Amino acid sequence: MPGPAGLAEAAGAAGAAAARMLDVREIYAEPAAALSPRGREIIGRFPGARLIEVASHWNIPHLHGNEGNVDRWVRVKRSTLVLGVRKSLPVRPNGRSADWIAPGASNGCAMACAYCYVPRRKGYANPITVFTNVDAIAGAVHRHLTALGPKPEPNQCDPEAWVYDIGENGDCSVDALISENTADLIRAFREWPTAKASFATKFVNRELLELDPRGRTRVRFSVMPPGDSRLLDVRTSPVADRIAAAGDFLAAGYEVHFNLSPVVVRPGWEADWAELLRELDEVLPAAVKARAAAEVIMLTHNRELHEVNLGWHPRAEEVLWRPEAQQAKRSENGAVNVRYRDDLKRAAVARLTELIAAHAPWLRVRYAF
Known about the structure:
Elements lengths: L3 H18 L4 E4 L1 H5 L1 H9 L4 E4 L19 H7 E5 L7 E2 L6 E2 L4 E2 L4 E2 L14 E4 L2 H15 L13 E4 L6 H4 L5 H9 L5 E7 L15 E7 L2 H7 E2 L4 H13 L3 E9 L5 H15 L2 H6 L1 E6 L1 E2 L1 H10 L1 H7 L5 E5 L5 E5 L1 H18 L4 E5 L1
Parallel strand pairs: 1-2, 1-3, 3-8, 5-9, 9-10, 10-11, 11-13, 13-14, 14-18
Antiparallel strand pairs: 4-5, 6-8, 7-12, 15-17, 16-17
């Protein structure tokens, strides 16, 4: 763990990051969410914001489905926050990133990655919705875990623990700038010896170093070649910062993995990924390398999101939208997406696997999707 001076420095850096990421001017809140302890805490963090009562966090007409918000895509993410009470608390099977998908404590993000699938569910605007009943979310996971009992055998998710993804529809590191939801879940999992929390992030929030997860939370830093990131990962931490943070998070008690995600196949992609893998090999401490594993996630895109992006970030679509190389694929939730053709995807995964073996042979690939 960092010492007091290091923690103070981290807190100052996190505060500056929060100011750059969020300038909340409007908070849309369901009445029960606004009156809850967590809701009052969040509203108190943004005293200058206008509070607007709404019947449902899912149905805010001029925010959700409003095509006019395309040219305000990033501004809405920075200035708008939604508070709701999560009604359904399903724990869903996964088997790739985690054994299970936990009920999310948020939906949406203040960052603006051009390939993100979550905006498709709300349409045109995708600010963070924070669910204020995090105790109920943690309780649902604990009941599920108790019913499971110990993990009977190892799998690629983890050799011993049941792994629960707690950030499927958002970024827990950014959520921690707004409320204690992420911290509460990390604290809950550190008391459950048969489980681990897991979340992917593109934002370095050093306040998380203070939470003492005791090895029960896996942080998956998403990385891609810096040129791709500058084009596609809008408002995220630079890739170099994510890599540099890995050692500090391991020292603070997190398990640290990496998402090689998304892999965008375009001219020069192999050379750029080779350079990134060499950087990982050169920069990461030996302790991180000894424990690291990776997920390889090929780009998935969507026609509706393509149309949205043309309204605010058309340059991204020059590499994301390649009909000659992509095919339709129906997702688990019924959406019709596009992925690389099967033959192209197989060749790209094989080539990236070769690059990992050549430049970062210590990096175990848990799965490729």
